[in-house]
Design goal:
The protein contains 14 helices and eleven strands. By secondary structure, the chain is α/β, with parallel strands linked by helices. It folds into two domains: about 325 residues, 3-Layer(aba) Sandwich (Aminopeptidase), CATH 3.40.630.10; about 110 residues, Alpha-Beta Plaits (2-Layer Sandwich), CATH 3.30.70.360. The strands form two sheets. The protein has a seven-stranded mixed β-sheet with strand order 1-2-4-3-5-11-6. A four-stranded antiparallel β-sheet has the order 8-9-7-10. Helix 4 packs parallel to helix 5, helix 5 runs parallel beside helix 13 and helix 9 packs across helix 13. The protein is globular and about 80 Å long. One of its GO terms (biological process) is folic acid catabolic process. Keywords: Hydrolase, Signal.
């Protein structure tokens, strides 16, 4: 009887084990199959393509610079709120930053969106130079497309989650002041990404590819010199020129170029050089950037630039104050996520130019300093390459050191277009920009769906991040505990555009 009882128990255990094994096999099969019903998600994005093109064109017209993107952030937040997201605005001490959230629990997957413009790049959506506002800002890096595509992808992904009863938390994080303001750095520092499992981003460009290279880390800041004003002809001996301090600092910094590691970049602009030649200027300012792929090199070279400021102040009898405006890490690629996004980008594919778009592109390619590439490149998907050194900087870099992050580039500009150019503004304000934007939106949505459906991919991406950043890594920033430099673009926007 006792033996029979044990035999019965063993049989039940065997049946239970078999059921569990069957259940586990079913789970693995489901995970291997990837995200369900994503075709409908792509169709929904196609249906709303004209609407999102209009949203992007409105932000293109606002052309608001870093930490001043009031209308732009309001429009994106309105789109997300209408779609059913819960909005938290003003995060990390940045009035135009926001987090839009849907769902609950794990995993937590975030999409990033930017929306700041660049000073001095105002331009009509035309293939010849034609500023809309003299000296005004323009979307020379395509962030009007960036924020809109991310919003479109988030809404499509949220609807897919609802339809398929997918569990987890989806966030769209609106990140201001990428252009020199390091908006995401303050978000990372203040814990906005602490519980996020994976981040999906993109950036406008002139090709369709996955961002597998390491970008450049940087530190930037404004050196404000103070001296003593005097009549430049009648009493020059009584003056101490703040502009002299700036110029002597620049001379010393330029001599550094011979003695710094290859690949380092130092650039500056004099943002205030005085008001009249016959007045010894008692205030002057110069705005510096230092870049390199390795943050350790950036820190070393930056300290030498600061020493140049100190020496210039001593030598000219002036003083200076330093306002750090930003600092970002290099982008840390995640091959696990990049392979997923590459598959999704290949599924979406590129696009071909219409006859009217081709005429526009051909005219634009004739503009000065343009380096034309084949117009057929908009239809191509570049193969995945991981680990090459890049040349630009982005505050997505800081995010990538704390959360597994993936980013793609979509062809929103005429092939051969340089970023931060009026040509980028022109293409970004017409249908070429809108078409590339939807390639990005679809790829991001598909990538998000795949990650929600395959938690093992997220686990592998986290393990890769731990390996790439090395044992004992702790995130920190040279910005320390300072507040965001909300006024770093002060004076860069003509009164007519404020």
């Amino acid at each position: 009887m006792t033996l029979g009882r044990y035999a019965t128990s063993a049989a039940v255990a065997l049946l239970c084990h078999g059921a569990a094994a069957t259940s586990l096999s079913a789970q693995k099969a489901k995970a291997a199959a990837g995200a369900p019903n994503t075709t409908a998600m792509l169709t929904a994005l196609d249906t709303k393509a004209d609407h999102y093109a209009d949203v992007a064109k409105q932000i293109w017209g606002f052309a608001e610079v870093g930490f001043m993107e009031v209308k732009s952030t309001a429009l994106l937040q309105s789109e997300l709120k209408t779609a059913g997201f819960t909005i938290t605005a003003g995060v990390a001490g940045e009035p135009t930053a926001f987090v839009a959230e849907y769902g609950s629990g794990k995993p937590v997957i975030a999409l990033l969106g930017e929306f700041d413009a660049l000073p001095g790049l105002s331009q009509d959506a035309a293939p010849s130079r034609n500023p809309l506002i003299a000296g005004g800002p323009g979307h020379g890096c395509g962030h009007h497309l960036f924020g809109t595509a991310s919003t479109a992808a988030a809404i499509a992904l949220k609807d897919w989650m609802q339809t398929n009863n997918v569990k987890g938390t989806l966030r769209m994080i609106g990140t201001p002041a990428e252009e020199g303001g390091s908006g995401k750095v303050y978000m990372v520092r203040d814990g906005v990404f602490n519980d996020v499992d994976a981040v999906i981003a993109w950036h406008p460009g002139d090709e369709n590819s996955i961002t597998g290279e390491r970008t450049m880390a940087n530190i930037s800041g404004k050196f404000h010199f103070k001296g003593i004003s005097a009549h430049a002809a009648a009493a020059p001996e009584r003056g101490r020129s703040a502009l002299d301090g700036v110029e002597v600092m620049n001379v010393m910094s330029n001599y550094l170029r011979e003695h710094i590691p290859d690949g380092t970049r130092i650039h500056y602009v004099i943002t205030d050089g005085g008001r009249a030649p016959n007045v010894v200027p008692d205030e002057a300012e110069v705005y510096y950037y230092v870049r390199h792929v390795d943050m350790n090199v950036v820190n070393d070279v930056w300290s030498r630039v600061v020493n140049a400021a100190k020496g210039a102040a001593v030598g000219t009898g002036t003083t200076y104050e330093l306002q750090l405006t930003g600092s970002v890490y290099s982008l840390l690629p995640n091959e696990t996520l990049a392979k997923v996004q590459q598959r999704m980008l290949e599924r979406v594919g590129g696009y071909t130019l219409t006859p009217a778009e081709r005429t526009f592109a051909e005219q634009l390619q004739k503009s000065p300093q343009f380096m034309p590439q084949p117009l057929t490149n908009t239809a191509l998907i570049k193969p995945l390459i991981i680990g090459a050194a890049g040349s630009a900087s982005t505050d997505v870099g800081d995010v990538s050191w704390v959360v597994p992050t993936v980013q793609l580039s979509a062809a929103t500009w005429v092939p051969g277009t340089a970023a931060h150019s009026w040509q980028a503004v022109a293409a970004g304000g017409m249908s070429i920009g809108a078409k590339g934007m939807m390639v990005a939106a679809k790829t991001m949505a598909l990538t998000g769906a795949e990650l929600f459906a395959t938690p093992a991919t997220i686990a592998a991406a986290k393990a890769e991040l731990d390996t790439r950043r090395g044992a004992g890594f702790t995130y920190s920033t040279v910005l320390g505990t300072q507040k965001p430099a909300l006024d770093y673009r002060k004076g860069s926007v003509p009164a007519a555009n404020k």
